[in-house]
Structure formats: structure tokens, C-alpha cells
Amino acid sequence: MDHYFIGGIACGVAGVAALVWLSLYHARIRPSLAEAVVVFLTSFGLVAGIKVCVLALNPVILTEVENERLYFFLGGLAVIWVSIDNVWTTLC
Question: In the 3-class helix/strand/coil scheme, how is 24-79 assigned residue by residue?
């Protein structure tokens, strides 16, 4: 089993739990299924962005595209940024 997959599930469950907690205890409204799905999938995006950054820093992987490692790393950072922004917008 891939560690990033398990981490994605853990982040997704934690994000949905945070959504439910914020909705029920702070806003006093019922959480939306659509918002829960967005938070869950966006949490997987966060873990995927971390995986792209880690793979870009690994010298064994991506040997054919050695000059493009920086672009892969920046793409991973962009995925992380968008995922955090989306979760933040949905939860707050």
C-alpha cells in the first residue's frame, strides 16, 4: 500500500471531520455533501502535490528530464497552494 494514498485518506477524513465540526458547532448548519467531497478530494490533491515535490527532489527518479526537476517541483508547490486555498475557502 502506498504511504501517500494512506496519508491522503487520513487528510481527507481529517478535513471532512473539521468541516462537520465547524458546520455543526460554529455555524449551527448541516454540512453539505458537496462541500465534504470537495474537502476530501482537495486533501488528496494536497498529498499528491507533496508527492510530486518529493519525487522531483529524488535523484534516482526523473533521470531523463534532469533539467526539468525545478518545474516539477514548482508544479507540486502549485498543487499544494491551490489545495490549501480550496480547503481554506471551503472551511471558512
Answer: HHHHCCCCCHHHHHHHHHHHHHHHHHHHHHHHHHCCCCCCCCHHHHHHHHHHHHHH
